Amino acid sequence: MKLNAQTQAAALGIALLPLAATAQSAAAQAYTPQTTSCPSGFALYRDAGNAGNQTISSSESAYVQSRKSNVLPGAWKTYLANVQGTSAGSSLPSYVSEILNGTGSAQDLPTLGIASSGGGYRAAFFGAGTLNALDARNSSSASAGLGGLLQSATYIAGLSGGSWLLSSLVQANFPMIQELVFGPTQNTSNTQNSWGGWMADMGLSEPSDSLLTNGEYIDGLLNEFKGKQSAGWPVTFVDLWARTLARHFSNGTTMNSFYDENLPHGAGILWSDVVNTPAFASYNIPFPIVVVDMHAPNENDSNVITLDTEPITNTVFEFNPYEMGSFDPNLAAFTQTKYLGTTNTSVCVTGYDQQAFVTGSSSALFNSFNSQALSSTLGPLLQAIEGVIGNPDDLLYAAYPNPFYGVTTGGFLGSNQTVLTLVDGGEDGENLPIQPLFVKARGVDVIISIDATADINNYAAGSALIATQNRTSLFPSAYSFPPVPTSIQTFASQNLADRPTFFGCNTTSSNDTTPLIIYIANGGPPAGASSTSDGITNTATLQLSYNDTFAQSFIDQTFAIATQGRPSSGGDTKDGEWPACVACAVVDRARGRAGQERSGVCQSCFERYCWSGVELDATGPGTGGQSSGAVGAVRPGLLGAVVGGVVVGLGAMLML
Ligand SMILES: *[C@@H]1O[C@H](CO)[C@@H](O)[C@H](O)[C@H]1NC(C)=O
Ligand SMILES: *[C@@H]1O[C@H](CO)[C@@H](O)[C@H](O)[C@H]1NC(C)=O
Ligand SMILES: *[C@@H]1O[C@H](CO)[C@@H](O)[C@H](O)[C@H]1NC(C)=O
Ligand SMILES: *[C@@H]1O[C@H](CO)[C@@H](O)[C@H](O)[C@H]1NC(C)=O
Ligand SMILES: *[C@@H]1O[C@H](CO)[C@@H](O)[C@H](O)[C@H]1NC(C)=O
Ligand SMILES: *[C@@H]1O[C@H](CO)[C@@H](O)[C@H](O)[C@H]1NC(C)=O
Ligand SMILES: *[C@@H]1O[C@H](CO)[C@@H](O)[C@H](O)[C@H]1NC(C)=O
Ligand SMILES: *[C@@H]1O[C@H](CO)[C@@H](O)[C@H](O)[C@H]1NC(C)=O
Ligand SMILES: *[C@@H]1O[C@H](CO)[C@@H](O)[C@H](O)[C@H]1NC(C)=O
Ligand SMILES: *[C@@H]1O[C@H](CO)[C@@H](O)[C@H](O)[C@H]1NC(C)=O
Ligand SMILES: *[C@@H]1O[C@H](CO)[C@@H](O)[C@H](O)[C@H]1NC(C)=O
Ligand SMILES: *[C@@H]1O[C@H](CO)[C@@H](O)[C@H](O)[C@H]1NC(C)=O
What InterPro entries would the database entry show (predicted)? Predict the structure, then answer.
């Protein structure tokens, strides 16, 4: 994009200040990375191995082990009691309760992962509403028989809009979803650094109705990364984006302090700091992972899937509180998150892994924009930055000094880049951050995949699973993925996305360690909605503000979607067996290890909820629920829209 920055800025009421004019604000200081001497024995990265010798870090391993011994036995019992309280829960086969109450012969609890997709605020709200339905602390979720799964998960991953949800949740010390989204209700002494809520009604790009206020606000944001810039670090649009996101998804901002330029507004809160929150320190949070993609000047663009921006062959990075790197065999290496920015073993950098910058990187889809972007809701931010950083080519990527410089194992694409250029985790089409959960060394049994990708009409139809199937098939030594359909038409025609579906139900001895997927997608309005117009969860990815009333309705409608299952006839709004069926899926791999046969209600659940393996066929087994009236009726229209190419024009803008 080419802009006359001064003209644009003037129109917005922004005065472009000379560099470093106010670089000493609290936020600017806290956002600037520091250098220190490296600890003895410091290594820039570790070899994460591949196939038989793939390893997770010792810190992750210690966290997971402590969580499994101290927290999960109680968490699974709470969940089990909630399932048993539902109508079908009492008829579960005894192996389900033995596995979950830890009395089975194997004494082998399931390893559960949860993944929440990208899709901007739509995905953040859909993920939030689903996590709420899985939260034992919400009594409605407990009665619905899903409450407790959140507390029982070993891993939780987020990407783009899903990373806003995940990273705000863990850095705020794992509050309940109502408090996460709307802020604390009780009048606590609000310290400068406590949690204030998402404040989604203050738009990401234009928080106020006043042009002048917005101009001054953006002007202030521009100053917040000038300290980093003056100290010589590469800064890009993603730094501005990070400072924007920090107002909403980091501690340290309330409605009253939103425009106060004297506060740090979350600057200085690091992704590696998450380990110090009380909930993490007591192993009460599933191990959090944020997914980010790579852009590389010498990438092979013939591997870009239609509609996407980055080739599926580029390295996919994960940021967990201890490490950043990839299990992809084309890198298979990790650096320490708290020393991100470091490129040699004598001078170590700290403060580069700002939580909002990691989240900003995961949602940095700006390189997929074209000229539409300027007239979009992001226009004001994009226009403002042009005058500050005069380097349009590198403007749009998150820039990290490359700790993997010179690593050539597996043909790492970034081996001769001094600065790694990272982008939105969904830009290769894998809009669900599930790949880290398929890492063999993590031993995950079952993954609740929460998908709010915009495939059809801003509803999801499986493209993210399809892309991950494609990509993991390139790296069979690192990942094992179950069969999913190869087209969104199959998802649409068999109602695999507008009702929950299990993938990977059938195993043989050669693939019984492949995780099972419980797919809960934002695939359409909930059952019982009188028509599609009742559906409100298909907002546009670039809708950057939500008022509280609408946000609450969105979360509540998501609760209905997450708890409905596959109602068997048009009039039903819920499948009473759904909570029992989820329990069957959750224990299924542990059941296999214990040498038990699937039985009772679990058998009929699997017949109803498992994908049959048949493509595009609406009449095969395992697709029950398609009779559900209202939704079935709109199917041909939606399908026609895809086939007719209507989604093409929206392009990769929808992945945020
Ligand atoms: C894993 O095995 C490969 C191939 O044998 C070897 O090059 C690599 O050093 C090993 N990595 C680890 C972490 O053991
Ligand atoms: C665990 O579940 C089994 C099977 O339902 C039951 O027989 C046993 O009493 C339960 N044990 C505990 C400690 O809840
Ligand atoms: C919250 O507490 C402060 C200090 O005690 C008080 O000034 C303020 O009015 C209270 N606000 C509300 C909404 O109760
Ligand atoms: C954020 O604030 C909450 C209280 O609102 C606190 O428990 C948590 O530790 C804080 N997190 C960080 C990273 O400061
Ligand atoms: C780029 O990818 C295509 C498709 O996978 C492949 O045929 C081609 O050889 C690749 N080119 C290079 C230079 O690796
Ligand atoms: C993804 O898989 C589909 C179906 O197998 C195939 O048509 C498509 O070419 C694949 N794309 C890539 C980039 O591998
Ligand atoms: C090591 O890294 C620091 C910080 O980036 C840099 O200032 C220094 O020049 C580097 N030293 C060498 C020997 O490359
Ligand atoms: C990096 O490597 C690629 C592929 O080998 C090459 O085309 C490119 O010129 C290299 N760039 C630099 C800066 O060395
Ligand atoms: C395991 O392999 C069998 C036979 O190829 C296949 O039918 C099944 O879908 C696979 N299951 C998983 C979870 O990959
Ligand atoms: C809240 O947002 C919804 C959806 O955009 C809109 O219909 C409604 O009028 C808004 N309410 C208020 C009070 O602004
Ligand atoms: C529990 O979830 C429901 C459904 O979204 C919500 O309306 C309610 O406010 C939640 N309760 C609490 C205490 O968070
Ligand atoms: C799983 O096995 C059942 C029963 O044999 C079969 O009907 C179904 O098609 C299989 N599913 C897949 C995905 O292969």
Answer: Acyl_Trfase/lysoPLipase (IPR016035), LysoPLipase_cat_dom (IPR002642)
Does 39 fall in a domain?
A: no
- What pLDDT digit, counting tens, does each position of 76-126 carry? 999 999 999 999 999 999 999 999 999 876 568 999 999 999 999 999 999
Q: How many CB atoms lie within 10 A of CB 39?
A: 10
Phi, psi of 349, rounded to the nearest 5 degrees: -105, 135
Most ligand 11 atoms within 8 A of CB, residue of 138, 553, 564 to mutate: 138
337: domain CATH number is 3.40.1090.10
CA 599 to ligand 2 center in whole angstroms? 17
**Strand 112-116 to 155-158 pairing:** parallel
Q: Which residues contact 374 (CB under 8 A, 6 or more apart)?
A: 1, 3, 382, 383
Single-letter code of the amino acid located at 592: G
- Mean pLDDT for 583-594 is 96
The closest-lying atom of ligand 4 relative to the alpha carbon of residue 269 is 13
| Residue 40 counted as domain residue | no
Atom 10 of ligand 11: nearest residue by CA position: 138
Q: Does the Cβ of 504 fall within 6 Å of ligand 9?
A: yes
Model pTM? 0.91
Nearest CA to ligand 12 atom 13: 613
Number of H helices, E strands in the chain: 23, 14
Ligand nearest to the backbone CA of 37: 7
- The token pair that represents 533 in the structure block: 């117009």
Give the range among 11-25, 359-373, 405-419, 636-650 with minimum mean pLDDT.
Answer: 636-650
Tokens found for residue 638: 């939606």
Query: What would the pLDDT profile of 152-201 be if each residue is shown by its tens digit?
Result: 999 999 999 999 999 999 999 999 999 999 999 865 655 678 999 999 99
Does residue 75 belong to any structural domain of this protein? yes
Interacting residues of 41 by C-beta distance below 8 A, sequence separation 6+: none
- DSSP letter string over 396-412? TSEEEE-TTTT--GGG-
What is the spatial distance between Cα 392 and Cα 385, in angstroms, rounded to a whole number?
10
Q: Which residue has the tokens 């005065």?
A: 15
- Number of domains forming the structure of the chain: 1
User: How many Å lie between the centroid of ligand 3 and the Cα of residue 257?
Assistant: 15
Instruction: Find out whether the beta carbon of 552 lies less than 6 Å from any atom of ligand 6.
Output: no
Indicate the pairing of strand 446-451 with strand 112-116.
parallel
pLDDT of residue 134: 98
Question: Which runs of consecutive H residues, i.e. helices, occur in 260-313?
Answer: 278-281
Domain-located, residue 615: yes
pLDDT in tens, 282-329: 999 999 999 999 999 899 988 988 778 889 999 999 999 999 999 999
List residues bridging with 447 in a β-sheet.
113, 517
